[in-house]
Amino acid sequence: MQFQLILESNTPAIIGLNYQYPLSAAIYKIIQQSDEVYARFLHNAGYTSGFKSFKLFTFSNLNIPFEIKGDRMICTTNRATLLTCFHMPDAATHFIKGIFLHQQITIADSRSKAHFMIKEVQLLPTPKLDAIATLWFVPASPLVTGLKNNRGHYDYMSPLDQGYENSIRYNLVEKWNSIHPLSTEEKQQLFETIQIKTAYYATPPRHRLITIKENTPEETKIRGYEKFKIQIKSPAPIIEFAMNAGLGIYNAMGMGCIKPLE
Question: 259, exposed or middle or buried, with CB in 10 Å at 0-12, 13-18, 19+?
């Protein structure tokens, strides 16, 4: 399920360009205040598949007009929107609305702090899909995928790279397997069933380098891509799952959030 949060601050905010990690922490904090068991489940393990763990939750870029000054976003209005996505039963709709409405989101780092109040929580409609559906999407946040190298780090891939679509497919199957365990043969069949295709605008996809846990010993830089189109052809539940859980990796850090192409 996908929700649009309407956020307001008392005055135009100043936040760091690398706001994804503190924003993720702020969302977890809200969940924790309302349901410690669910928050612990999300934070500690999520769903598991083999040696991987997934947190089936993601969110978009913070949508607010801003100007850049150094490594700061100087917001030019006090109203923002944020798309948040959860893979949860439909019955959890009221639970999600209830825990977010009128809560405060604080986005802070060592240099600035901004407070937003959640004024509205809007459940977005799920597209009507055929049993086997084809739908175009655009990234609502940087989409990150790649292959791990011998050092255990990711070599990030561009949508222009050979094998990019297969990497997205493989990760999507692994996430699905984390909640619907499949045999090796079934996973291969699902991989072959899902079709991923990318398309581009007049300019190449835009890359963004995002720093996670900035200015700490755990600081990590990840590279994601935006400003392109991605088509998914698959059974309808897989498409809905991709919308709710995100594509690629680092979804719980606000990467790989997608929305239908309008």
Answer: middle
Q: What is the pLDDT of residues 75-107, one digit of tens each?
A: 999 999 999 999 887 767 777 888 899 999 999
Q: How deeply is 258 buried, as exposed, middle or buried, from its count of CB atoms within 10 A (0-12, 13-18, 19+)?
A: buried
Residue carrying the six token digits 């990019």: 164
pTM of the model: 0.91
- Sorted by sequence, the CB contacts under 8 Å of residue 137 that are 6+ apart come out as 229, 230, 231, 232, 242, 243, 258, 259, 260, 261
124 three-state secondary structure: coil
All domains of the chain, ordered by start, with CATH? Answer: 2-123 (3.30.70.1890), 132-260 (3.30.70.1900)
Nearest alpha carbon to residue 43 among 51, 30, 12, 154: 30
